[in-house]
């Protein structure tokens, strides 16, 4: 593998993300570890969205739906397990669980099923209609969660104890960070693999010139639907981790604000850059934490920065740091 | 007479009151270049689009390799071996020459759902792609992004992508458009050789190229074919001279 500038920048970004919680651990500062964990989780959500938004060119303004579904699946399974209440009790019994290794795949599959339906319907349109449809579907799910009393409705659902992972104490903040960080790395690796594959090549073609695809025998719809679903699944995994970090889920995870935030991670860090969302989420949390102390209007300044990025540096932070031209 | 690969019968297409295709019938035979000429707005591109499956005819039939294909979408026709190039260059601008052609090879193979192996290190894709790139006269330009190519090179890239489909027929819509006389001279032998891989339905305004290349010519005027014949027959046809070739011909 030849070492490009992007590889160097990427390594630095990851090294920083690891260094912060390790140093915080040595200094006995669990709050900072939690902050770094939040970055890893948000970055994972962004890596998921980047697949659809960056590589697939699908401007989804509804990824909060998948983030929230991941969160709710986690909260529901965990609270049923904690209360010894079966999820379903009829001809057979389905119990909740507090095992992350069970919760994750369930969260991923449930979100994937939602994504198949939402994607198949939304992909009948394109451009601004696609954006609006993804937004509409996610808001429908948001309002459903608000008005669904069984799991806390508007107030959300607390589940008091962190879920479990074999052989690792998940109450140790640094351990939980490692779990989240490892999943982030796996997701980045998976993204890298997908984007270089035959599928990735075709997906990029469909993004650049969808009309042309048919004349070489490829139907863009199936490419787009597939990446939309994979993207949703990654974001749902992030949602599950986020619920576990807070031991709490609420409709806020499903709200369009959340969709916007995930989009900010991607665009700020660098659309279509493998580690763009990691840099974006890191800067976002940093800005929230530092600027938020001084000014309640920090989001206003974030807005300005975002505007500058979109206008002058479409490759985001990673783009600025690597300054490669036109390459994919 | 050699085998007919593409057969169009009584095709009609109207855009509102405008009859863009009127009762068009034509054939494309193995080994030939069949040129389709006619003034601007005659309906040449519209006919190509109907054959390629991008727009639906109002009536009539299209038989390709023995099968009725009117109801097939464009992707299905491309996979069945109908390759086309566009009057206005249409490639993937951010991709390199190699990526564009590899993508077309992969489309022809019908295998775009591989997730694991990197496409650009798959010899089953890159070997044929390299061959098509060389065939189209773009050797040495594999690593250049399509957006950075000259106009003429982009036209050649279109040919390479069409070749990648290993087609049973080419539909080339003004492959020389905007290339200038020098570019046209370069492309003429490439197209001439192309007919040995598959017959070509060639839409072209450059009459020197058409007369040099065509085995048969059809003349389309206001959506209607007014004459079909050999180069000599078309040059001699008084109606064609009046309506299209003009006085100087
Ligand atoms: N989608 C469309 N809707 C309405 N009219 C159309 C459409 N496409 C083409 N036309 C009209 O049909 C006629 C034939 O157009 P077409 O592009 O097929 O001509 P052409 O022979 O390819 O011309 P040129 O030599 O300029 O490329 C023109 O009058 C054009 O304006
Ligand atoms: Mg035309």
TrEMBL record, chain A:
Entry's Gene Ontology molecular function annotations: branched-chain amino acid transmembrane transporter activity
GO CC annotations, alphabetized: plasma membrane
Keyword entries, A-Z: Cell membrane, Membrane, Transmembrane, Transmembrane helix
Record carries keyword Lyase: no
Membrane topology: Multi-pass membrane protein
InterPro entries, sorted: ABC_transp_permease (IPR001851), LivM-like (IPR043428)
Location(s) in or outside the cell: Cell membrane
Primary location recorded for the protein, binned into one broad class: membrane
Residue spans crossing the bilayer: 40-59, 64-82, 102-121, 128-145, 176-195, 216-242, 297-321
Superkingdom, taxonomy of origin: Bacteria
PANTHER family in alphabetical order: ABC TRANSPORTER ATP-BINDING PROTEIN, HIGH-AFFINITY BRANCHED-CHAIN AMINO ACID TRANSPORT SYSTEM PERMEASE
Name of the protein in its database record: Branched-chain amino acid ABC transporter permease
Annotated source species: Pseudooceanicola spongiae
Organism classification: Bacteria, Pseudomonadati, Pseudomonadota, Alphaproteobacteria, Rhodobacterales
Automatic annotation (TrEMBL), chain B:
CDD domains: ABC_Mj1267_LivG_branched
Domain ABC transporter: 6-247
GO molecular function, a single term: ATP binding
One Gene Ontology cellular component: plasma membrane
Swiss-Prot/TrEMBL keywords: ATP-binding, Nucleotide-binding, Transport
One Pfam family linked to the record: ABC_tran
Protein name: ATP-binding cassette domain-containing protein
Protein's organism: Pseudooceanicola spongiae
